[in-house]
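Below is a filled-in request sheet from our internal design queue. Each sheet records the structural input a requester submitted and the sequence that came back. We keep these sheets so that new team members can see what a complete request looks like end to end.

REQUESTER: design group, bay 2
PRIORITY: normal
MODE: inverse folding
CHAIN LENGTH: 202
BACKBONE (tokenized):
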């Protein structure tokens, strides 16, 4: 369900110029590789329209029908049951809330060795940078303190927005110079959160 919801969330409503429209819905059985909370899932699906896709299960097609798509809500019918999912699409991934759990889904990208080598490095921040809130929300956790050294991928702060947790992560090796908010504080889009520096502060 979550994998199909990811596809619905990333499929344009208008499909007149869609590549699937051009080649015919039934000519290909696309294969998708997704990361769901860090675990890889691979499956095939059939695209009928922006509102209907199917997955082959035990030699038959299970149909997924998009009943309603709003800014942050998907309503999907599968096997006669209707499911409502809340989602937020950002930075190439979709964050879902389903059955009380928060799930992050992103496509698996097949990259060359050189690109992977660069991604896996831990670059050092050059100068200073101010991390601002990407959305309205409530600060629920700040796992770092002023003076801490962080590496690429380390969580700097956790925001709750629309009942979903969103982790703000460091993109390079740096030192935490200043924290401008505290847990429980409500912030708006562009609110300054954390100041990072390439120099040790202490």
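RETURNED SEQUENCE:
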């Amino acid at each position: 369900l979550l994998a199909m919801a990811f596809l619905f969330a990333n499929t344009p409503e208008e499909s007149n110029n869609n590549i699937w429209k051009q080649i015919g819905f039934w000519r290909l059985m696309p294969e998708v590789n997704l990361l769901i909370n860090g675990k890889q899932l691979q499956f095939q699906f059939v695209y009928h329209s922006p509102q209907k896709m199917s997955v082959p299960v035990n030699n038959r097609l299970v149909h997924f029908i998009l009943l309603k798509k709003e800014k942050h809500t998907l309503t999907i019918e599968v096997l006669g049951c209707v499911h409502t999912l809340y989602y937020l699409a950002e930075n190439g991934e979709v964050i879902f809330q389903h059955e009380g759990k928060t799930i992050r889904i992103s496509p698996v990208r097949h990259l060359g060795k050189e690109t992977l080598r660069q991604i896996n490095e831990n670059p050092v921040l050059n100068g200073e940078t101010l991390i601002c809130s990407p959305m309205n929300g409530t600060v629920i956790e700040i796992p770092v303190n002023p003076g801490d050294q962080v590496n690429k991928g380390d969580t700097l702060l956790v925001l709750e927005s629309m009942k979903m947790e969103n982790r703000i992560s460091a993109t390079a090796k740096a030192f935490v110079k200043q924290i401008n908010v505290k847990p429980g504080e409500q912030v708006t889009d562009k609110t300054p959160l954390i100041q990072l520096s390439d120099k040790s502060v202490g």
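SHEET NOTES:
- Confidence is low (pLDDT under 50) at residues 14-28.
- The chain is about 10% helix and 50% strand.
FILED BY: M.R.
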